[in-house]
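Quick one:
INPUT:
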């Protein structure tokens, strides 16, 4: 059980724990996009950089394993400046879509910009143009301009659904998330890629433009679609709608349960709210 110090707090974790999880245990929330506890480590977004004593360069906390006696700092001036720079890079070509983006209100770019960014834009060149509103399957819509190439969706289709529909093609600023030729994102777990996309690149065709997320209320529940009983959250609205008064279910989202469904939920359960 390695014992380490993060921002002066001592924390003991199981062997093999990553620094990002150790920080969470110490009550310190590090920013990240590509890291997801249910997927392999990609380490490409660089948001979770931390300073580790005796290491001359900043290290990514999602990849670095906690070791005994490690001393980690997460809030130094160098780190805060680096987070700003990383965000600036991520936003160089990100469209200013927020007023018409379905992810607004739950977008990690917005959240982290307000928490760690807050710089004046120095970009004078035009932003890159890529494909927008592409129907990549029956449930999901892709906006390539909004994608920050964290590769979470690609790793999900590789490692969890094992259907491998998505990949990242081309290089440099031409890199983009694409379907493999002849494929569409049509697997029984496709809706999960929307949940894990930290920005508005993958949106739910069923939910798009139905409701701004800050008008939604949420209740914890269990899916009744089959005997597995995946844990979920019901997002509902209680505004007066055109013809119906009172509460109405708008979407279902998986809720983490280590023993039942972890972070995921199948499309059958996710979209069956219409029948209830
Ligand atoms: Fe990441 Fe979303 Fe882009 Fe996929 S579409 S790589 S999840 S930002």
């Amino acid at each position: 059980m390695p014992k380490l110090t993060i921002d002066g707090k001592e924390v003991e974790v199981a062997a093999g724990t990553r620094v990002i999880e150790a920080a969470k245990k110490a009550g310190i929330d590090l920013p990240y996009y590509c890291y997801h506890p249910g997927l392999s480590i990609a380490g490409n977004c660089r948001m979770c950089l931390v300073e580790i004593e005796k290491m001359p360069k900043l290290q990514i906390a999602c990849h670095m394993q906690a070791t005994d006696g490690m001393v980690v700092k997460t809030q130094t001036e160098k780190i805060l400046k680096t987070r700003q720079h990383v965000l600036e890079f991520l936003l160089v070509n990100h469209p200013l879509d927020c007023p018409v983006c379905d992810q607004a209100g739950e977008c990690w770019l917005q959240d982290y910009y307000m928490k760690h960014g807050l710089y004046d834009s120095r970009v004078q060149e035009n932003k890159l143009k890529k494909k927008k509103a592409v129907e990549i399957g029956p449930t999901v819509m892709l906006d390539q301009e909004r994608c920050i190439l964290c590769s979470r969706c690609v790793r999900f289709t590789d490692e969890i659904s094992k259907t491998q529909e998505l990949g990242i093609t081309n290089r440099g600023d031409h890199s983009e998330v694409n379907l493999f030729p002849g494929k569409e994102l049509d697997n029984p777990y496709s809706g999960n890629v929307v949940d894990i996309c930290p920005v508005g690149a993958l949106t739910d065709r069923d939910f798009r433009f139905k409701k701004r997320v800050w008008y939604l209320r949420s209740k914890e529940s269990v899916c009744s679609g089959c005997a597995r009983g995946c844990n979920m959250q019901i997002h509902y609205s209680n505004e007066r709608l055109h013809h119906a008064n009172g509460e109405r279910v708008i979407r279902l989202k998986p809720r983490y349960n280590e023993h039942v469904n972890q972070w995921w939920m199948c499309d059958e359960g996710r979209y069956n709210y219409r029948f209830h």
